[in-house]
Specification:
CATH class of the largest domain: Alpha Beta
Number of strands: 19
Number of domains: 4
Strand content: 15-25%
Helix content: 40-55%
CATH topology of the largest domain: Rossmann fold
Oligomer: single chain
Largest sheet: 8 strands, mixed
Distance between the termini: 63 Å
Number of helices: 19
Radius of gyration: 33 Å
């Protein structure tokens, strides 16, 4: 076996990979290990390694760095202070899973007389435990190493049974983003998904479980570092996301229901959303329309995304109240295409239970946008009414009107909305046209699934 091209070698970092790397080197040189964690230092000593102080380790002819990617720069910056007081030259070798980043760090902090070799062992403790060391791939970039020294290291790694691939840092990171980066991203996604074995798993499924188990056996920090310290992984993640969206969209056509147009709207029966939908559909001549009352924009967009409705509509902006907050929040969570934006004129009525006592009404519960559009009128004409908005479906004033009529809300609660609500639910209108502006318009979005 070809010997290691150095007498004294130090391994900095005795985590899972550092332990594996030190085990590979120990019989071929005077090996020392150092780890900043005292527990790891004790483990190294217990396993028969020469666990030495940092200064002693950094005095070795060759120093291998087996530290987390995110810790590499701060580690080398600290070590540069020691190197300044050490005589002679030495070779520094990283084993990080990204290569552009350590190249940059070496360029910034490496003493001028030192040599540097970039390596990426494309294996870890788990893969070596299953398949052994022989045939495993290691990528080398000579970076700042003389030809003879690089040839010696290449020969040494080959003598260990490793398959040596010579590649510059940029090419490595481009390829790694499309291979290792994708694998780790998919594995972590499946972990978050809750991917569990079943009694009927196929061979392909079992391989996915193997990938998930393998990548999640590594630290979360390694995953984050792989995704953030490789300059090419951000573009990979965008492409992967677009590909997933494209596959998802392929499974849902523009119209799942062909005998009628199924439209999910933000409001309930008698709401301004219903009024707006019927206004928009006046010229629709392609068949029957079914309105599904979903009360919130979140539910509209979720139903569109899942395919239980084929079109969606929700309020987006009012000339007095501004942007509709719940719509903005929901829009940030879902993908959709805007078919059209349109507006209708809005008038707000204050209404209560037909059997209640007007003198007992002390609360008005309605959508936050309604309160914003009637702020001045309520302050001047009904200053004693507590203003509130319900949670869940009760954010919709049409739902509030329904609950007032059924007695599910106390008779001291009034609501505001279209006077149509009062007619539908038999409520008493206390006063109509309470909007602050006579020309009060609300804009709505008519939407469909993307790419259809």
């Amino acid at each position: 076996m070809t010997g290691i091209p150095a007498r004294s070698v130090a391994v900095i970092g005795f985590g899972r990979f550092g332990r594996l790397w030190a085990s590979m080197l120990r019989d071929d040189c005077d090996l020392m290990v150092f780890d900043s964690d005292s527990a790891h230092r004790e483990e190294a000593a217990a396993e028969g390694f020469s666990s030495v102080p940092l200064y002693t380790a950094l005095a070795a002819e060759v120093v291998f760095y087996c530290v987390p990617i995110s810790a590499f720069e701060s580690t080398l910056r600290e070590h540069a202070l020691y190197f300044a007081n050490l005589e002679g030259t030495r070779t520094l070798i990283d084993t990080l899973s990204v290569k552009v980043h350590p190249r940059t760090v070496f360029e910034q902090h490496l003493p001028e007389a030192y040599e540097a070799l970039l390596t990426h062992p494309m294996f870890g403790p788990d893969s070596v435990a299953v398949g052994g060391l022989a045939g495993q791939i290691i990528v080398l970039d000579p970076h700042r190493m003389h030809d003879a020294a690089f040839a010696a290291w290449k020969e040494y790694f080959g003598s260990k049974g490793l398959s040596v691939v010579v590649m510059d840092a940029d090419q490595h990171d481009r390829l790694a983003a499309e291979s290792q980066g994708v694998t780790h991203f998919v594995g972590r996604t499946l972990e978050r998904f809750g991917f569990e074995p079943t009694p009927i798993d196929t061979l392909g499924t079992r391989k996915l479980h193997e990938i998930t188990a393998q990548v999640t056996n590594d630290t979360q920090q390694l995953f984050v570092d792989l995704q953030t310290r490789n300059p090419y992984t951000s573009a990979m993640r965008v492409r992967l996301s677009h590909a997933q969206d494209s596959v998802f969209d392929q499974l849902l056509p523009n119209r799942l229901v062909t005998d009628r147009l199924v439209v999910g709207i933000q409001g309930g029966r008698g709401s301004f959303n219903e009024e707006a939908a019927r206004h928009y559909l006046r010229g629709y001549e392609d068949g029957h329309v079914e309105l599904v009352y979903l009360h919130t924009t979140e539910r509209v967009l979720r139903a569109l995304h899942e395919g239980s409705v084929d079109r969606g509509q929700f309020a987006i902006h009012n000339s007095v109240g501004g942007m509709v907050g719940e719509s903005v929040a929901a829009m940030a969570r879902y993908r959709f295409d805007i078919v059209e934006e349109f507006e209708i004129k809005i008038a707000h009525a204050l209404m209560m239970s037909s059997t209640g006592d007007p003198a007992a009404v002390d609360t008005v519960m309605t959508h936050p946008q309604v309160l914003a559009q009637c702020r001045s009128a309520l302050a001047s004409r009904y200053p004693n009414l507590r203003q509130t908005s319900g949670e869940g479906d009760l954010i919709d004033h049409a739902k509030v009107a329904e609950f007032i009529a059924s007695g599910e809300l106390a008779p001291n609660i009034a609501t505001m909305g279209s006077s149509v609500l009062a007619n539908i639910h038999g409520l008493r209108v206390i006063e109509d046209n309470l909007q602050d502006l006579g020309e009060n318009f609300t804009s709505f979005l008519w939407v469909q699934r993307p790419g259809t």
